[in-house]
Amino acid sequence: MLSLMLFLPLAGGIFLLFFRNPRAIRGIALGASLLSLYVSIVVLGRFDLHGGMQLLESYSWIPAVGIAYRVGIDGLSLPLVLLTQLLSAVSIVYSWRVDMRLKEYMFLLLLLQTAMLGVFAALDFFLFYIFWEVTLVPMYFLIGIWGGPRKEYAAIKFFLFTLIGSLAMLVGILLLYFNAAPRTFDVLSLIQQQPLAGQLRLATIAFWGFFLSFAIKVPMWPFHTWLPDAHVEAPTAGSVILAGILLKLGTYGFVRYSLTLFPQVFQQYASLIAILALLGIIYGALVAMAQTDLKKLVAYSSVNHMGYVMLGVSAAAFAYGKPDLAPAATTALNGAVFEMIAHGVITGALFLIVGVIYDYRAHTRGVDEFGGLGAILPVYSGITMVAMLASLGLPALMGFVAEFLIFLGSFGVFPGFAATGLLGIIITAAMFLWTIQRIFLGPANPRWKGLADMDTRELVALVPLTVLMVIFGVYPRPLLDIINAAMTTLVAALR
Amino acid sequence: MTALAWLIPLLPFLAFGLIVFFGRRLPGQGASVAIGALLAAAVFSLLLFFRLLGGAEPIRSTINWLVLGQQPLALGIQVDALTAVMLLVVTVVGSMIFIYSVGYMHGDPRYPRFFAYLSLFAASMLLLVLADNFLFLYVGWELVGLCSYLLIGFWFERPAAARASLKAFITTRVGDVFFFAGILLVFFNLGTLGFGQTFEAVESGHLSGGLLTGIALLLFGGAIGKSAQVPLHVWLPDAMEGPTPVSALIHAATMVAAGVYMVARLFLIFFSSPDHTALAVVAWIGGISAFMAATIAVVQDDIKRVMAYSTISQLGYMMLGLGVLGYTAGVFHLMTHAFFKALLFLGAGSVIHAMHTNDIKQMGGLAKVMPSTYWTMLIGSLALAGIFPFAGFWSKDEILTEAWHNNPPLFYVGLVTSFITAFYVMRMMFYTFLGEPRWAPAHESSGHGQGTVVHPHESPRVMTGPLWFLAFFAAFIGFVGAPFLGSPFGRFVRFGEEAAVPFDLRIAVISTAVALAGMGVAAALYRWRWLSPAAVRRAFQPFSTWAERKYYFDDLYGWTVVRGTVWASRVLRVFDIYVIDGFVNLIGVVFVGLTRLYRVFDLYVVDGLVNLIGWGTKALGGVLRFVQTGRAENYLLVIAIGVILLIIGGLVR
Question: Rounded to two decimals, what is the model's pTM?
C-alpha cells in the first residue's frame, strides 16, 4: 500500500520519458501524482487513530548489515505525506505552462515527490538516508536549469549546504548502528534500544551530527542563508516544494529522530536551541520586513515560521524527564506539527502567489514597484490577503491554530522565551500588512492597468490551498486529532 | 434556545459568505441580505433578552474544539445579562447603521463588499460578546480588528486610508500581545481557557496575589489597545479615514467598546487583585484618557476627529467607572454611549454627505438646510454632554457617584472632563449648524462648484430614518437606569451581590451644572462671540499647542518605535547579507582557494616531480646515448678497460 503510493510518481516519471507530445507528458505527470494522492487518501481511510506506527512493510534487502526496506506511517508522517501529495499535485498544475525541457522537468518533479514521500515513510536509516539524499538531486537541477539569473550559485549553495549536513548525519547514523546490539538500521528497533543512552559523549556527537543536518534543512538561524538564494532563483513550483515540504524534512527529523533517539542530550541543549529558534523568529521577521523582493520576503518569513516550530520542539525536548510538564510538551508538539502543515499550505500558496504576478504578468517582484493592485486584480488580491493574514496568524485561519498551540505549550515550559517570541507576532503582522499596503493599496499604478486577473490554471492551484487554510483554521480537529494521537504516544514514551 | 444563541453570530457570517461570492446578484446588491441577517439576529437577541429578564437561567453551550493529549478543550458560548445587553446593542445599533449605509454608500464601486465586511464585523463582534472562554473572545477580538483594518482601508486608493488601516491594526496588535500573554498565563496556571473555571479558581483563592494582578494587567493591555486608551490611543483618530458608517459602528459604538466589555466580563479577575490594584490602574488609565482626549477634541476642526477624540474620552469614562468599582455604571455608560455616539457619527456622516468636507470651519448655518440632521444631532449632543434627561446624564452621573465614593481624585477628573465634553460638543454644533454659512451656496449657473461652493441638502429617508430611531434611544434609554424607576438596569446587570452606590442628588445637580457651564462657555465663544476663540487659545498657551500636537504621542512613536523597527530591520538585512552570508561565502571562497592551492601544488610539485623524473630519464638517456656508438672497437676498448679495472681491484684487495 505505502510502497504503491511511494513509487507511483516515480513510475509515472519513467513512463512519461517515452512520450514526446507535451500534452501527454503533462497528463501522465498529473495523473501519476493524483493517483498517488488517491492512494494516500485510501491510506488515510484505513488509518487507525490510535494504531501507532502502521501499514508497516518490511522486505529484506542487505541482511548481512541489517539493512531492510522498511516503511510505515503514523500520525506524525501521515499529515506530512498528505501535504506532500497536495503540494506536488498543485506544483504540477501550476507548471502547466512550462515548455522548456518539459520532459525532464516533469520527471524531476515526480522523482522529487517519491523521494519526499520516502523520507516521511522510511523506517530504516539506510533507506531514509537514500531518500534524503535523492531529494537533493531533482531540486538541484530544478534550480540550476529552470532557475533565475543566479541559478548556478544558488543551486550549488543549496547542494553543498545540505550535503555537509547530510554527511554529519551519516556520522550520527553510523554511531547508532555500531553501538546497537544487534547492529541494525531499523529505526523502530533503534528507538527501542536507545543504543547511545549510556554513552553521553557519543550520544552528544551523534546528536549534533543529526542537528546540523536538520538545522540546515529547517533552516535554523544561522544556517538559513541558502534559503533566500535558493528561493529567489528557483522556479515557482520549486519554491513551493522547497518551502512547503523540504523544510519540513528538517523539523520532521527533529521530532522523529532527535527527540526519540537522544532525549537526554536534546534536553540538555534545549534552551540553546530555543534561543536559536527565537533568533529565527524575530530576526527572520525583521529581515523580511527590509526586503524589497517579494520572493525573498516570503523566504525570510519562512525562517520566522520555522522558528515557531523549533520553539515548540525544543520546549518538548526540555520537558523530557519532567512528568508534570508532559501536557505542555504534548501541546507544544501538537502546535509544532500543526505549524509544519500550516506553513506548508500557507507558504506554498504564498510562493504560488508570487509566481502568479511574476511569471507571466509583471515580470518583476519588487514590492515597491506595485501599488493599487487591489482595484485592478480583485480575486488575486483577495486570495493574497487571505494567505498573508493566515501567515501572520489571524484567528480563524490555519496559522493561528498552530501559533496558538505552540505558545500555549511552550509557555508552560519556557515562559520567558515564549513571551519573547510573542514579539515576533507583532513584527510579522507589521511586515505582511506593510507588504499588502505597498502592493495592493494606494492609488493604482498606471503601469499595471492592463494586467489580467487569475486564470483557471492558477485558480485550480490556489483555491484548494486557500480553502484548507479556512477549514482547518475554523475547525482544526480532524487534522489535529491525527497529530495529537501520535504526539501523545511520543511524549508518553519519552517520560 | 441554545441553537438560537449559536445562530446569532452565524447568520451575519453566512451573509458575509453569500455576499463575497455572489455580490451584486443578491437582492439589493447584497445590502438586503446583510440587513436581513442582522435584523434576524436582533430579533433572536431580543428573545434571549426577554427570556433572561423573565428570570431564566443563563444559556451555556460548549463544543470540544480540540483535544490536547487526553484533555479536550471545551469551548462555547453563554448568554447572561451582560451578554444579552451587548447583543442588543450590537444588533440594534448595527441594524440602524447597516440601513443608513444603503444611502451613504450608494454608488460606491465596491458597494457589495462594504456590506460583506460589515456582516463579517457583526458576526465577529457577536462571537466576541457570546464567548464563554478566552479563546473565542480572542478570536472575535482579532476578527473585529481585521474588519476594522479592512473597513478603515475601504477606500484604499487614498494613501492616508491605507496608512491609517495599517496603523490601527499594528497598534491594537501591540495591545493584543499583552492580552495573549495574559491568556497564556491563565492557561499555564489553571490549564483551562473557560471563564467559568477561571472564576472558580479566583474565588477559591487558587489564583490570587501578585499573579492575579499581573494577569489582570496583561489582559487590560489588550483593552488599552482595542479601546484606544492612553498610550495606545493613537490609531483611533486616524481610523476616521474609513467611511462614516464604519466610524459609527466600529470606531464608536461597538468594537472599541470591546475593551470595556472585556474588563466587565472578567471583572472578577480585576476585582480580586489585592487592594484593587488592577482596578486602580484601569480607573487611572481611563481617567487620563478621558481628560486628555477631551482636551484634544476641543482643538479639532475635522468633525469626525472631534467625535473620535470624544470616543476615546468616553471610553476612558467607562474604564474610570469600572475602575472605581462601578461595574453597572461602566456597562450602563457603554450602552448609552453606543446609542448617542452612533447617532452623532451618523449625523456627522449626513453632514459630510451634504457638504463633501469634514471641516467644521467651512460649514455653518446648516440647521435650516438639514433640519432632521440638526435636531437629531442636538439630541445626541445633549446626551453626550450629560444633560437631564438625556441618556448620557444617567450613566455619567452613576460613574461620578461611584468615583465620589471610591476614588475622590478621579471624581474631579471626571467632573472637569464633563465640562470640557459639553464645551467641545457645543463648539462643534455651533460651528456646523448655527451662525452664518461659511460656504457659498451654488447657484443655478455655477452647477458643480469647487471648494466651498456646495449645494447642501437633507439626506434621504434611508439615512434620516436611522437618525431619528437612534435619537429616540439617545433621548430615552437612560431611563432604564433611572433611580426613581428603581434602576432596572442595575438590577439586571450587576456584579455579584454588591449593591451600587445610591443615587446622590447633590452630585447629579453639580454634574449637570458643570455640563451647562461648559455649554454656556461654548455659546459665549462661538455663538455670542463675547471673546475671540483665538485669544482664548493664546491665553491657554502652552496647553493649547500641546493639545493641537496631540501631546506629541504620534511624534514620539514615529521617531522611536516606527523608525527604530525599520532601522533594525535594515541593519539586520545588511548583517544577513554581509556577515552571516559573508561567512558562508568566505568558507566557500576558502575552499575554492584551497583547491587552487592544491592545483598549484599539483602543477609544480606533484606534476613537477613526475616531470622531473621524466626529464631526468630523458637527460640520462641523452647522455647515455653517446655510449652506444655501434662501433665494435669502442665496445672492445670499454671491455678491456673494465677487465683491467677488475684486475686492479682484485690485486688491491
Answer: 0.91
